[in-house]
Amino acid sequence: MSWGVELWDCVEEVLGQVTSDTEDVCGVYGKFIKERGEVEREYAKNLRKLCGKYLPRGEKSGRGQQGEMSKERAFRLLLTELGYQAGQHEQLSEIYTKTIPQDLKTKAKEDSKLAEKYKKEIKHLQQSVDQAQKSLEKSSLKYKKIQQDWVVAEETLQKGESDCSLSRREVEKLRSISCEKQKQCEESKSLHARQMTTVKERKEEYLQTSLPAALNGLQGLSVGSGQYMKEVWLRCVRAEQEADKVIQGCHKEMERIAEEVRPEEDAQMVIEKFKTGNVPLIEVPEGQTNTIKRSKSKMKISNDTESQTLYQQKRQLQMKVESLEVEISKGQKEMSGLQLMIQSYTSNPQFGDVTKFKAELDRATLKVQLHESDLYALNKELSGVNTRLEGMRRSSSVSSPAIVTHSMPHTSGVLRR
User: Fold this and answer.
1) For the residues of 379-401, what is the DSSP string, one character each?
2) CB distance 13 to 222 below 8 Å
3) 191 Cβ partners below 8 Å, 6+ apart?
4) By three-state DSSP, how is residue 276 classified?
5) Which residues contact 325 (CB under 8 A, 6 or more apart)?
6) What angle do CA 262, 70, 59 make, to 5 degrees?
7) CA–CA gap between residue 124 and residue 336 (Å, rounded)
8) What is the pLDDT along the chain (417 residues), one digit of tens a residue?
9) Up-side HSE of residue 371: CA atoms within 13 Å toward CB?
10) How far apart are CA 82 and CA 50, in angstroms?
11) E strands along 232-335, which residues?
């Protein structure tokens, strides 16, 4: 079913409908999408504000604190993931408030031009038919007048022929006038008939060809506008689906981060934070005090300084290891996001060029690999420090009994005297 066939007598209604559809593209749909984008922008803004409010001061540079506990690290990383979610809502806001409204504005402008073109075309066709109809009406009036004049002339001739008071010459004059009027009447009748044929042809061409073509063009314009809005809605849905993929990835990462909270390890970190590395001495009888004091002073000279230095090294290495682990986690997350973007842009070329994301992925991958290499070296060094500390601890546990045993003969001698 087409408008040209079904709505030939509803031209004004059709023009009004098309005009309304064109205005709705920017008027109703455009405003809705733009306000939808404002909602996304405000939500993203509030998320950013929330993250900034609860992010520890030392973390605003993007680096974790050294020696932070697992629950502190988890909270910081959760805030980071929440920031990435805010980024997705910012991208949606950009699409809704700028990209799509600009496209709708362009589409509405094009449709308005086409609608105005069809409107002028229909108006021109109607004027052509109206002019032909007016000419026919004038011709009809003229024909009726001439026909009436001929009838009057014919009646006058008949009266003259029956009137004996008129001369032959006067009767011939009346007959000549009647013939002239008859001739004019026949000519006017012929012209009127031709004009009727012309009007009929123009109406047929207008109603069967020109008007249906224009109405069908308006129908195509309306269908095209509806199809375009359909694509716009699908575009919005797909943009949200792509954002949801990243957000779901953030949720999985947040779940993993929460699972990595280790309260027991945090308790051990408290030990490492305040531990001095000194080995406690076993209490002995009063008579052994001098010997143990001498032994204790020797141990201080040989062990305490080295122990404190090694524990400082261990703490510094642990802090560096944790810092690198955070950087690697961030880099892996960035790689995951870029991979999703590359997949999305590859599946939907209309989004833009995917080359820049591939270059960013290469850089992010190289950065993560370098961090992993540094992390391996630090872990190896940390393992060496731990081995040395364990050796010192064993040495201290063995040397203490030996000192007490060596001093016993001297003490026994004193008791015998």
Assistant:
1) HHHHHHHHHHHHHHHHHHHHHHH
2) no
3) 139, 143
4) coil
5) 375
6) 170
7) 62
8) 888 888 888 888 888 888 888 888 888 999 999 999 999 999 999 999 999 999 876 554 444 455 688 899 999 999 999 999 999 999 999 999 999 999 999 999 999 999 888 888 888 888 888 887 887 788 788 778 887 877 887 777 777 777 677 677 777 787 788 788 778 888 878 887 887 888 888 888 888 888 888 889 889 989 999 999 999 999 999 999 999 999 999 999 999 999 999 999 889 888 877 776 555 655 555 544 444 444 444 444 444 445 456 777 887 888 899 999 999 999 999 999 888 888 888 888 888 787 888 888 889 999 999 999 999 999 998 898 888 878 777 776 655 554 444 444 443 333 333
9) 19
10) 9
11) none
pTM: 0.55
- Cα separation, 414 vs 396, in Å, equals 28
Contact 28, 35 (CB under 8 A): no
Name the token pair of 136.
Answer: 């026919």
Q: Which contacts qualify for 95-99: CB closer than 8 Å, 24 or more apart?
A: 95/37, 95/236, 95/239, 96/33, 96/34, 96/36, 96/37, 96/38, 96/40, 96/236, 97/34, 97/37, 97/38, 97/41, 98/37
SS3 279: coil
**Helices 305-347 & 211-259, crossing angle to 10 degrees?**
160
The letter for the amino acid at 414 is V
CB 51 within 8 A of CB 79: yes
Q: What is the dihedral of CA 50, 53, 57, 61, to 10 degrees?
A: 40
H/E element, 177: helix 168-205
CA neighbor of 365 nearest in space, from 323, 335, 330: 335
Taking every pair of Cα atoms in the chain, the longest distance, rounded to a whole number of angstroms, is: 202
Helix, strand or coil, per DSSP, at residue 27? helix
Residues in the chain: 417
Please report where in the chains the tokens 């779940």 appear, as a residue.
255
What is the rounded radius of gyration, in angstroms, for the C-alpha atoms of the chain? 51
Positive or negative: CA dihedral 400, 404, 405, 407: positive
3-state secondary structure of 160: helix
C-alpha span between 352 and 359 (Å, rounded) = 15
Structure tokens at 398: 């063995």
Rounded distance between C-alpha atoms, residue 85 and residue 90, angstroms: 9
